[in-house]
């Protein structure tokens, strides 16, 4: 692996790093949320709802929620569900969601995405840069520093923002209001404790830690090789964009099964039995990751673990490209500004 030039993070302030990473997170969220919504809807439409259960939220759109309810009551009518039918792929999902729910539905959960993405990205990228700066001085092998830095930074960041990630996933799997979200969370905490806020964290770590390690190894290597090939002293937006998209694609394919399991585990929040609806007793389940994975394989085959792969590849590769391209570009702008001022 080629050794990259001195990172710009060594030549800019912490505040400038925060501005660069938060700007990248904001742009990425605005551009890529529609793909994230479609990916989540494609995954959640195959998850069965047990007999006698339905979702707590009375403004969901998933067709199977009504048919699985036991003892339907007049005060809990199923007609309010807007039924777009089953989605037959990415393009079909885009068309049906837009036609039946409106264009704005493609940005479902944008607010919590931004609330989650900005602090997580600021923390994650700042931690990665500083870890990488230190570790690259210790390890001569160019692969070790990005591997350890990426895995370590992602582990900490994912644990910190896990509750916000769970809420974002739930909002995107159905049309929800903040009032409904808070009601579901309060009910679940009452019966399950605060640990329910980290439901799905194990699956998230299994997906995100390997993804981060693979991504940063690939990104740093591709960036360094491209800089060397063009005899440049530093990166630019195009180099970072292409390196980010390529390494993001590879990491996405490898970790896709864990993304499917993570989504299935997190959308169970708020599911309660029709008979227990008035009593407020949640019947949510917190099945181990391996159990959920086995159920998916049994019901859908091995291919079920790769549901939503196409939109996730596009979304993740583009998100990686936009994020790292913006981040590296702004770091260079700040570095040159600091150099000029000094």
What is this entry, summarized?
The chain has 342 residues and is mainly alpha-helical.
Describe this structure in words.
The protein is mainly alpha-helical and 342 residues long. The protein is built from ten helices and two strands. The protein has helices spanning 14-44, 64-67, 90-101, 110-138, 144-173, 178-192, 201-229, 237-266, 289-300, 309-341; strands at 53-55, 271-273. The chain has a two-stranded antiparallel sheet. The radius of gyration is 22 Å and the shape is globular. The relative contact order is 0.17. The model is unreliable at 48-84 and 269-284 (pLDDT under 50).
Identify the overall geometry.
globular
CATH class: Mainly Alpha
Using the CA coordinates, give the radius of gyration.
22 Å
| Helicity level | 55-70%
Strand content: under 5%
Keywords: Membrane, Mitochondrion, Mitochondrion inner membrane, Repeat, Transmembrane, Transmembrane helix, Transport
Family: Belongs to the mitochondrial carrier (TC 2.A.29) family.
Membrane topology: Multi-pass membrane protein
Main location: mitochondrion
